[in-house]
Design a protein that fits this description.
mainly beta; Jelly Rolls; eight-stranded mixed beta sheet; Pirin family protein; RmlC-like_jellyroll; Pirin_C_dom; Pirin_N_dom
Length: 327
């Protein structure tokens, strides 16, 4: 899981140590284990938010951990062309390579540590797939796709695409240099990530060394979620044990704490966590497949607009798939 790293973590800016006398640590509200499934043309995923009430996730609505999988030659898979409306997709690649193209002109290739941030807004068609050379060679693939809801006022905004290079993420460490903190979006301890968001959120990938502690200041008006990408440790004021594939919803407080176990699995030398949170939108939610709206009528209209070709057309690219799917 290389993502973005540095040869000497001690040269990075350090977040201030949390003062337990003035800062309240967030407790654990719930802990769930992500079930496994398949997405698109058949690539394996863990459904990170399965079984969690949407009110606890707001403004997030869905997240898949894609892989971690070692593909044999000919095995890498992606998705067919399909529509989105009313939300944003954030695809963060830790290992491997993914190509994206959409009907609004956005797109590009993302690889180790890169993020593509697609605001569907009023609607578009898009496709995500491994490049041909990866299909031929096979190889390691591991990433995250997060769906971020849009407030009512922004659901009809023009689509937008952000290409966030891994080298642009904010890099920080803890007072003892025990953790590498990658800020992808939002503000963490006064340091901003490159992602521009409609809804105030923060998105962090942290690698915590065995026996080390990550204490992050976290906005009190944000919710706070911790998803374990690899390794094991504890989280929250009650030191709840956590392991790979588990999601923790934290309660109210001023900071969150994650501790890496001294002993880690052989294939996972560190505790890797995705930390995310945002300001809840608290608006009615009507969600069906790739359409996330405020009312049932708006969802029906989205399906009708898609079927009428109003969400865009597939660009004429030699060799590109030309079939559409509704999810």
């Amino acid at each position: 899981m290389p993502a973005v790293t540095v040869p000497d973590i001690t040269v990075l800016s350090r977040i201030d140590a949390v003062d337990p006398q003035t800062s309240t640590e967030r407790p654990v509200k719930s802990l769930t284990s992500a079930p496994s499934g398949f997405e698109g043309e058949g690539f394996p995923v863990r459904r990170a938010f399965a079984g969690v009430d949407l009110t606890e996730l707001d403004p997030f609505i869905h997240m898949d951990q894609m892989g971690e999988v070692e593909y044999a030659p000919g095995e890498p898979k992606g998705t067919a062309w399909h529509p989105h409306r009313g939300f944003e997709t954030v695809t963060y690649i830790m290992d491997g390579t993914f190509d994206h193209q959409d009907s609004h002109g956005g797109g590009g290739r993302i690889t180790n540590g890169d993020t593509q941030w697609m605001t569907a807004g009023s609607g578009l068609l898009h496709i995500e797939a491994p490049p041909e050379e990866l299909v031929v060679s096979g190889g390691l693939f591991h990433g995250i796709q997060l769906w971020v809801n849009l407030p009512r006022a922004d659901k009809w905004a023009d689509p937008r695409y952000q290409d966030l290079r891994g080298g642009d993420v904010g890099l920080l460490t803890t007072p003892d240099s025990g953790a590498l903190i990658r800020v992808i979006a939002g503000d963490v301890a006064g340091h901003r990530g490159p992602g521009s968001t409609h809804t105030p959120i923060a998105l962090v990938h942290a690698t915590v060394s065995p026996g080390a502690r990550l204490s992050l200041p976290w906005r009190r008006d944000f919710n706070a979620l911790v998803y374990v990408l690899a390794g094991q440790g504890t989280v929250g004021s009650d030191r709840r044990p956590i392991r790979k594939g588990q999601l923790v919803v934290l309660g109210a407080g001023d900071h969150l704490q994650v501790d890496a176990a001294t002993s880690q699995p052989l294939a996972e030398p560190n505790l890797d966590v995705l930390v995310l949170g945002g300001q809840p939108i608290r608006e009615p939610l009507a969600w069906a497949g790739p359409f996330v709206m405020n009312t049932r009528d708006e969802v029906i209209q989205a399906f009708e607009d898609f079927q009428a070709g109003k969400l865009g057309t597939i660009p004429s690219v030699h060799g590109a798939p030309t079939t559409l799917t509704e999810a």
